[in-house]
Amino acid sequence: MKRILLLIALVATLFSCSKDQQLSSQMVDVKVALTGIDIQVTPEDTRSTASEAGVKRIALSVYDLNGNLIQSATQNKDVDAANFGTPMTFRIPVGAYKFVAVAHTVAATTDPVATINSVTEFSLGSSLVGNPTFSTVQEGTISGNTTQTVTIDMGTRKNATFKAKFTDDNPSDVTKIQLIVSHASTAYSDLKVNPSTGLAAAQWKYEKTFDLSTLPITTVKNNSFSVPLMLTAASQTLDVTVNALSATDEVLYTRTLTDVPLQQGHLTQATGTFFSPIGTNTFSFDITEITDNISLD
Fold this sequence. Notes:
By secondary structure, the protein is an all-beta fold. It has one helix spanning 50-53, and strands at residues 2-3, 6-10, 27-28, 30-35, 38-39, 57-64, 69-76, 92-93, 95-104, 115-118, 121-123, 133-142, 148-153, 160-166, 176-181, 192-193, 206-211, 224-229, 235-245, 251-263, 266-272, 283-289. The chain has 1 helix and 22 strands. A 4-stranded antiparallel beta sheet has the order 7-6-9-12, with no helix packed on it. Strands 18-14-21-22 form a 4-stranded mixed beta sheet, with no helix packed on it.
């Protein structure tokens, strides 16, 4: 388990306020701590390490109550690992604010930080959803002429995860495993999510392909493959297609699982045979709650 505790000091930058903002011109140093981000490897995922499962991107934006952006900052562990999690500095006037925070991992080092568009929307672009992905919106009032501290509790992860675990060996011509959630939907080019609820603005297709030659395994038997996604409701049932591909991406074996139960902050694992010519050739389902410890500090 690896805990990332980000301490963000809002210290620098003057701005002019409109009359309807009704903010004081008095500037106050504000410390914002993001807590409740429990970065851990779930017991079911035998192939991941703590570093692979950890948060690698953080975005923070501060809005006034009229929805005007006051300040924003991001951190990218793959760009500046030495300073990841260290204080970012701003200064804001006395007043009431909404703090929007997104913390997530990524599938590739080139994947960008989430873009916070407003109090009600952030975007992951075309990148694969990371597990975990946290987001929240929290109001805070800054008053007085001394340094203020605001603690933002990130709560539980907002993504759901589907995992397929195989109990039989794959034939030698199978070189890739592909998972597709909601295969009848369209692939997204700009995945937009409500930071308060963690729900996607529309139903999209979520797809991930695993090249066995790049993984430290010789067979899919007793190994598992997962795809994270953002739901449009706290709980959903969606179809999931599992494909076994050749080196040239030809579909050699396929199975579509209908009405798979998925839930925010949970991992749905389907376990069973896939290639065997005998037996039931069916998957059994297990929904495991992913525990995220929440700091009470």
